[in-house]
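Hey, can you fold this?
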Amino acid sequence: MKLKKALAPLALAAAVALPMQASAMTHSISTDLVRLVDNNMDGGMFNLYWQGSLSRTTAIRAGYSTGDDLSILDVTFKGYVDRYHQGAFYEAGLTWWDGANDDDIGFMAALGYERTLAKHIVAGGSVQMVAGVDEQVAGVAETPFFMPSLFVTFAF
């Protein structure tokens, strides 16, 4: 019986809080231009990233890249030093590399900068560090290794 009494106030609180939270939410879709054209990354890889804000200075970012012999899935936490889509940021999370013969999970971290150019357009770049991915899967002799990133984002 107490649960029934609590449902009405909870539903009312959710109805009031969700629109406010949704108005603060922003999503974006981006592509990494370096990964797209770099022949060292499996001859160039098609890639797409989604980012959803958690607060005014944090976000979750998930990305998928695929080439001829390699697919990469990244899921990271992203924090902004200044404001969302405006200034320096850091990322940390997991990355899964699926090669032609093997796959491996590692750690990915990045430091970068992004700037809003127009109402829905953001440009940025970062230096990413990947650690823990087996050298046979990654195609590099040692880990950790570093990769540049230059991206264009559509924010909505």
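Oh, and this one too while you're at it.
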Amino acid sequence: MSATLFRNNLSRSALRAASSAAPKRAGLAGASFVRGKATLPDLAYDYGALEPAVSGKIMELHHKNHHNTYVTSFNNFSEQMAEAKAKDDIKQQINLQPLINFHGGGHINHTLFWENLAPKSQGGGEPPSGALSKAINEGYGSLDAFKEKFNTALAGIQGSGWAWLVQDVQTGNIGIKTYQNQDPVVGQFRPILGIDAWEHAYYLQYQNRKAEYFKAIWEVVNWKAAEKRLQ
């Protein structure tokens, strides 16, 4: 086992040990909660398993640092919100709500994102099949045409945000939508597949060549996970 993989395994083992100290239950969008608190989910693969599309160092920083910050902040602000409600402090509740939305959205989005990805040895990059493949072909002509449209949407995001393949919960139709910052896909639309366009998702490896990241990420997209979300 390489030194890098060994360190990755140690890091993931430590995270698992910390998160398994209390019972878990399924939470919103697959996120896990312990006694009402959000917890950092384990990855189903090692940090370096998505290389060369996404480097192990980026995955480690993205998961252990960025996502964990959203989890910690969401829990902290949620506790402050509970205190504000107990005191009937309406001003404080209003002040806290955007922070809870941002960090809670970051947790939900990243939890889905990790599920969106898989090493090639586990099916990453294999094209969709069944109903999802049919919907993409009917809506965009082909998978390649869909990817081109999706990457155009990603490139059009100003600043930080996400692009999502979504399904309208009323009509069942699929479409591509972009969201700023950490706004989650809620309400009328159901998230099927999302790509993180924040700089922390690619800059360490691709620097200002984000178009290369948008192209490479499809090599490790987990279409099987996306297919399960389509209803």
